[in-house]
Every structure is written in structure tokens, then in C-alpha cells.
Amino acid sequence: GDSVTQMEGPVTLSEEAFLTINCTYTATGYPSLFWYVQYPGEGLQLLLKATKADDKGSNKGFEATYRKETTSFHLEKGSVQVSDSAVYFCALKAAGGTSYGKLTFGQGTILTVHP
Amino acid sequence: ETGVTQTPRHLVMGMTNKKSLKCEQHLGHNAMYWYKQSAKKPLELMFVYNFKEQTENNSVPSRFSPECPNSSHLFLHLHTLQPEDSALYLCASSQELLYQETQYFGPGTRLLVL
User: Are B49 and B34 in contact (CB under 8 A)?
Assistant: First the structure.
């Protein structure tokens, strides 16, 4: 079945450091890929998405590129802020089969940014 | 503000109680979802409704009973729950079930079963 694997956290960085959170997936066909962010005490918010190979999603300084050859969708940010502290979820939405249209999530990566 | 609201935000209930969670979306979407978020586990899809019809029941125990009276409202009726059902329950909606569509989430209901 479909699955998403994220790098295990927690990840702790200093303000203005470079961030990478790795995400790889297994899926039938060519799924859509998403990054969601969950701030403390809140639900999930869409951060960015990509719906086809080589697409780059970007938002609030975060970027991720849909890499079909490596089945990856790594999240990056050049300079993190304290306000970026949250849990980040990589997810895919299947493009075919019995899982069509359903979101499959990774386990989440906790990011803490210190001043 | 995501346009998806959930009430209550927090709920404590005993194992013999009956309670209901409510979700409302103000986005004009046609598909709605219930997810369960437990500590140290990936988000689990529970139910999917598309144009008020249930299209997915992900092997959820019968003590959880969903209801979708219209495309804007989704309920999760709870009865005789177990302590392991304590979790954050998230509602989401999307325009349709298409794989490119983004799901928008509510803030969740934090449930504690004693």
C-alpha cells in the first residue's frame, strides 16, 4: 500500500539555520504530494504542495520539489525563525487504485527553533 | 482561519457516556473527512463523505458513528468509548475527492476518555 516516511525528529535548530526535513514515499502511479504544518494546539495547515513530477511547491520561504526518480519530497528553508517551531507532516494523495484521493501521512517531524 | 470549525475543542467523557463532535465547513466543499491523531502514530483516516454519502469507513469500531446531514456539516457520535480512544480528532474538507485537491483541516477536538 501507499506509505510516507519522514526523517525522525525532533529537529532542533538555531534561528537563521538551514532546514531540511526528508520525506520519501511509496505509491501507485504519480500521487500528489503535500507538506502540512501543525502549530501547538492547532489543526493542520497546508504549507505547500506539488501535483506532478519536477513541480516545486513553495510558501513562506519553505520549498519542496517533487522528485519522481528518488520518490522524494524533501522540505527546505534557508533561514528558520522561532515562529517556525511546529510539527511538519509530509503526505501523499493517491492518483489511482483503491486509495484514490485519500491522504496518507508520514509520522510527523517536530521542529524546535531556538533564538 | 481555515474555514473549518470544530466543537467542542476539548472533551472529557467517561466510558459510559454518549457525546457528539461537530464539524462545520464554510468553504462550499463537497467532501468531508474524520481523522484520528494519537500520540506517536501517523494520522489515521476514519471516515470519508462525498456529497453527503459515506464512501470510506477505514475499519473503525462501531462505537464511532458518523453522520453527514448536508455537505457543510459532519458529526461524530461517540458511545461506550475506551481510554485508548483518547486522541485529537480532526475534521477536514475538500472541494471533491480528486487526488489534486487540497484538504483543509479544522483545529480538532481533544478527547480524553476516563
Answer: no
Q: Which of A46, A93, A107 is the closest to B99 by Cβ? A: A93
- Is pLDDT of A100 > 70? no
The beta-carbon neighbor of B108 closest among A43, A94, A101 is A43
pLDDT tens, residue by residue, A40-73 = 888 899 999 999 999 999 999 999 999 999 999 9
pLDDT tens-place string over residues A66-93: 999 999 999 999 999 999 999 999 999 8
Determine, for residues B105 and A45 on separate chains, whether the beta-carbon distance falls below 8 Å: yes
Averages of pLDDT over each 10 residues, chain B, 114 residues = 88 93 96 91 90 87 95 96 95 84 91 95
Which one, of B49, B3, B8, lies nearest residue B26 by Cα?
B3
Mutating which of B103, B109, B110 best tests the A interface, going by the most A Cβ atoms within 10 A? B103
Whole-number Å distance between alpha carbons of B95 and B92: 11
| Number of other CB atoms surrounding residue B40 within 10 Å | 6
Q: Are B62 and B78 in contact (CB under 8 A)?
A: no
Q: Are strands B87-94 and B31-37 parallel, antiparallel or unpaired?
A: antiparallel
Q: Cα(A48)–Cα(B56) distance, rounded to whole angstroms?
A: 26
- Residues of chain B with Cβ-Cβ distance to A95 below 8 Å are 99
